[in-house]
Write a structure and sequence with these properties.
The complex is a heterodimer of chains A (about 280) and B (about 650). With about 280 residues, chain A is an alpha/beta fold. Chain A has ten helices and eight strands. In chain A, strands 4-2-5-1-6-7-8 form a seven-stranded parallel sheet, with helices on both faces. Chain B is built from 25 helices and 15 strands. Chain B folds into three domains: about 160 residues, no CATH class; about 240 residues, Alpha-Beta Barrel (TIM Barrel), CATH 3.20.20; about 150 residues, Rossmann fold (3-Layer(aba) Sandwich), CATH 3.40.50. Chain B has about 650 residues and is of the alpha/beta class. In chain B, helix 6 packs across helix 9. The chains are: A alpha/beta (about 280), B alpha/beta (about 650). At the A-B interface, helix 1, strand 3, helix 4 and strand 4 of A face helix 20, helix 21, strand 12 and helix 22 of B. Strand 3 of chain A pairs parallel with strand 12 of chain B.
């Protein structure tokens, strides 16, 4: 585990020396089979970590599970309090959990979440990523996962808020957390189905009620997650990541030049990133 | 005739005792009883109190430390070897796992053919003060109150001389409560339990009144003995009124305020420890002088309790004080000495009025449970405590030998070969583990599984959990298994971490300087320094770890807050997975050496021996040196109150 943890640090580092240091280890696993990545998103305090803990503990019985949990950095100090694993309550040693800080990036992920997911999916059977929160401007996660869970609380009157925020447009399943009482769960599910019906009349979005406390619904959700396979082409996610980096560095104009780069798909992610960024810095 | 026709019988003499192992504790109990002690008061170790078996990773460093470890019926049998249950009044300081110890006690009595009706004793079982002050809670408030209710229901019908819960004003006082707060919070806790019983509707009217009659209290007595005496009289008055008006109890016997006492331990001083003997003697006055408000049972700390656990001789010395008071003085020959005292009546009235106001305030915020969950009670206690500490620091409150008359001749009491201190034998933990393994090896696993299944089913269905717990006891279920089954159903209580809400006033200039250093380090290393901080062990005092977490983030570090009640090994594993730049642990249970060893060993085994470790807590100077020799890079004690400076030193360690 020590080696893996240090490799991830190497992948996260953004100093000039890091790409050369990680090129070898990354090339060594590049050809590995890749595991599905599942995103867990939802407003702060909705119970993402607690749910993820319950789900991961169950899956860990027969699969190698990794989790990346992202928390916000303070805009004032630059520091972050990474407290997600505190709520996961996973029996020790069974699941690999790594925390990341947003370090000023918007979008719900940390700057290097995607490259880390890319490593973990080559070394584990199933990978989860928990976003920092959710809103219209924080759905980067949909570009990097094969299945996206949106967590919501069973609070009546939330539907319009969900619709307004556009939250219902991305997830593959909506999980109603904290359904400690069955009656509450049933009415919340009915209400959500109606809301989703309005937002996405043409898609079949599952709605699952769970209680991490009583264990209700957890097995059903686990069964669903076990069935998730790799559906998103990694080339697409890579391309998204490069585009995002360029956009952050040079804005929209950089993106128009990037679209013309013909060599993109053949190199490692770091090389493509470096080329894209240097390309962008040439006079436009 | 001023004197009583017959002198009163003395109160029960107890000594709070238990440590190391069941064998060592059994010897101690038998010696104490042979010396004239008339009841037992059992101290349990933290794993037993928090529902872990001794071999659990989180329990290992704490086994036998602050009390006796009990893993199964086999342990309890050994603990009571040669002590007749039907002639013993046994008080157990046990809360979250009170039902389990109650069930073990019942099972042991069954095994020995002692009828349940012949058992008398008390389980402390006051969960409110655990949330507020003491920290050994397990389950959330709802299920916790249910467990207490189940025990009353069972005891009233089957073990009529047993007090299933002892409402504790003791710990409220230590957490800072004023006498008025003590009265109000303790009485509101008692009402919380009795309201639960009344609202269940399963008890008949007579049974409910019996349950009211079984509520007992556990109080503190400090040196202001006149006010304490009046406080106890106020308790008597208010409790009588509550029993009559709120629960309709007509029988005055069932409305008696029955209470046990441990006189104040927190106020005993390390400085000139011999003075504590006087303090203890004077503190008994508040709970003995007034016959109408006299305690039913008394346990005295030992003169050296601020220094270590008491040795047998220290306990004997305290016991002798009780015997002199009861048998040599004429205290027990007179009716209440304060009848007609204008001063006492006025002071009592002031306290009663204050308590009524405080109770009304609790009602106004929605009752005890809400006041607890919303932090209203906790905040009030914290404010009172801060004021008290301030008074002592300013010298407004005299503490002889500490802030006044600190000069004095050397005490011969600490000159002996043992320095006047108790020295435990860590090797005894191995015996506890061996007994646990023997129990596991000899038991019928199918019976264990069936008993645990029944426990979980009953927990879900809402059935009374005592019968299933007794079944578990007979099946040789262990403490960790019993609590684990209920954790599975009820979940674990996680108090507000406090990390989000902490307000720290940090010197902005100092913070800016540290932030600049952090930014520089981040640029050089390509990564922000990452601190993994947590509180290993089972004591619930999370404040230190939380304040450091907040301060470090404020200074610009990425902080992984691992939380409390973890094994040191778990914190080490998190530090490895997170590739920590530094890992910090906070320990207040006194187990800093054992916990640090576990942390360092786990880091080493994981190939991460180079991750630097810092330790904070109540660490004596000699131990701090021992920690440094083991490789700990910095040790912080309560003297290091400047949090920014602490973060600065942590950063020195990272950037060494």
């Amino acid at each position: 585990m020590r080696d893996l943890a240090r490799l991830i640090t190497l992948v996260e580092r953004d100093d000039a020396a890091a790409p050369a240091l990680r090129a070898g280890p990354l090339a060594a696993i590049e050809g590995n089979l890749i595991a599905p990545v599942i995103g867990v998103t939802g407003a702060p305090g909705v119970g993402k970590s607690t749910l993820l803990g319950a789900v991961a503990a169950e899956i860990a019985g027969d699969r190698r599970v990794a989790i990346v949990a992202v928390d916000p950095s303070s805009p004032h100090s630059g520091g972050a309090l990474l407290g997600d694993r505190l709520r996961m309550a996973i029996p020790h040693g069974d699941v690999f959990v790594r925390s990341q800080a947003t370090a000023g990036t918007s979008g719900g992920l940390a700057p290097r979440t995607y490259p880390v997911l890319r490593v973990l999916r080559r070394l584990f059977d199933i990978v989860f990523v928990e976003t920092v929160g959710v809103g219209q401007t924080e759905d980067d996660v949909r570009h990097v996962v094969d299945d996206l869970l949106l967590c919501v609380q069973p609070l009546a009157g939330d539907s319009i808020q969900h619709l307004k925020a556009g939250l219902m447009e991305s997830p593959d399943a909506v999980v109603v957390t904290k359904c400690d009482e069955e009656r509450l769960a049933a009415s919340a599910v009915t209400e959500l189905r109606a809301t989703i019906g309005l937002a996405r009349p043409d898609t079949d979005v599952a709605v699952v009620a769970v209680s991490a406390r009583t264990g209700m619904g957890v097995s059903d959700l686990v069964a669903r997650l076990r069935a998730v396979s790799v559906t998103r082409r990694e080339e697409d996610a890579d391309a998204w990541f490069v585009r995002r980096a360029v956009r952050e560095a040079y804005g929209r104009q950089g993106l128009t030049r990037l679209a013309a780069d013909p060599t993109a798909a053949t190199a490692s992610l770091d090389e493509r990133l470096a080329r894209a960024l240097s390309f962008g810095s040439s006079p436009l | 005739m001023t004197r009583l026709a017959e002198p009163d019988r003395p109160w029960i003499f107890r000594t709070y005792a238990g440590h190391t192992s069941v064998d060592a504790s059994n010897r101690l109990f038998r010696d104490n009883l042979a010396r004239g002690q008339t009841g037992l008061s059992i101290a349990f170790d933290l794993p037993t109190q928090c529902g872990y078996s001794s071999d659990d990773e989180v329990a290992r460093p704490e086994v036998g430390k602050v009390g006796v470890p009990i893993n199964s019926l086999d342990d309890l049998r050994a603990l009571f070897d040669g002590i007749p249950l039907d002639r013993m009044n046994t008080s157990m300081t046990i809360n979250a796992t009170a039902m389990w110890l109650y069930a073990l006690y019942l099972a042991l009595a069954e095994e020995q053919g002692v009828p349940a009706a012949a058992l008398s004793g008390t389980t402390q079982n006051d969960i409110v003060k655990e949330y507020l002050a003491r920290g050994t809670y397990i389950f959330p408030p709802g299920p916790s109150i249910r467990l207490i209710g189940d025990m009353y229901e069972h005891a009233v019908r089957n073990v009529p001389r047993f007090n299933p819960a002892n409402v504790c004003s003791y710990h409220l006082q230590e957490a800072g409560a004023t006498p008025v707060q003590e009265l109000a919070y303790a009485l509101s806790t008692a009402m919380l339990v009795l309201d639960e019983l009344r609202d269940r509707g399963t008890l008949g009217r007579d049974e409910l009144h019996q349950a009211v009659g079984r509520v007992s209290f556990f109080c503190n007595a400090v040196l202001r003995f006149v006010e304490e005496l009046c406080k106890m009289r106020a308790f008597v008055e208010l409790w009588d009124e509550i029993c009559r008006d709120r629960y309709g109890v007509e029988d005055p016997q069932l409305r008696r305020f029955r209470y046990g006492v441990q006189v104040n331990s927190l106020g005993l001083t390390e400085e000139q420890p011999e003075n504590n003997a006087w303090r203890i003697a004077i503190e008994t006055l508040g709970v003995l002088l007034s016959r109408d408000a006299r305690c039913r049972a008394l346990q005295l700390p030992a003169w050296n309790e601020a220094l270590s656990l008491p040795r047998p001789w220290d306990q004997q010395w305290s016991l002798r004080l009780q015997q002199v008071m009861a048998y040599e003085t004429d205290l027990l020959s007179y009716p209440d000495l304060f009848e007609g005292s204008v001063v006492v009546a006025k002071e009592q009235a002031r306290l009663v009025a204050g308590a009524r106001e405080e109770l009304a305030r609790l009602d106004a915020v929605g009752g005890t449970l809400l006041a607890l969950e919303s932090g209203v009670m906790k905040a009030a206690l914290v404010a009172s405590q801060a004021e008290r500490i301030g008074r002592i620091a300013r010298g407004d409150q005299v503490v002889v030998g500490r802030n006044r008359y600190a000069e004095g001749a050397e005490s011969p009491l600490v000159q002996g070969a043992d320095g006047g201190l108790f020295h435990g034998s860590p090797a005894e933990a191995a015996r506890t583990l061996a007994r646990l393994h023997a129990t596991r090896a000899a038991r019928d696993e199918a019976g264990v599984a069936a008993a645990l299944e029944r426990l979980a089913v009953d927990a879900r269905s809402g059935a009374n959990l005592v019968p299933a717990s007794v079944l578990c006891a007979h099946a040789r279920v262990t403490t960790g298994e019993w609590a684990g089954a209920l954790r599975g159903v009820f979940g674990e209580y996680r108090p507000p971490t406090g990390v989000e809400g902490q307000h720290l006033s940090l010197d902005q200039q100092a913070v800016d300087a540290i932030r600049a250093r952090v930014d520089d380090l981040t640029r050089r290393r390509g990564r922000r320094p990452r601190l993994v901080v947590g509180k290993p062990g089972l004591d619930g005092h999370s404040n230190g770890a939380e304040m450091i977490a907040i301060a470090a983030r404020h200074c610009g570090l990425d902080v992984v807050y691992a939380g409390i009640r973890l094994s040191a090994a778990e914190i080490a594993r998190q530090a490895i997975a997170e590739d920590a730049s530094v890992v910090g642990i906070s320990v207040l249970s006194g187990s800093h050496l054992e916990l640090t060893d576990q942390l360092l060993a786990t880091l080493e085994a994981g190939g991460a021996g180079e991750i630097p470790v810092v330790v904070g807590g109540i660490v004596p100077a000699a131990d701090a040196e021992a920690l440094r020799r083991r490789g700990v890079r910095a040790v912080f004690t309560p003297r290091d109150y400047d949090l920014v400076a602490v973060v600065g030193r942590v950063l020195d360690v990272v950037d060494a």
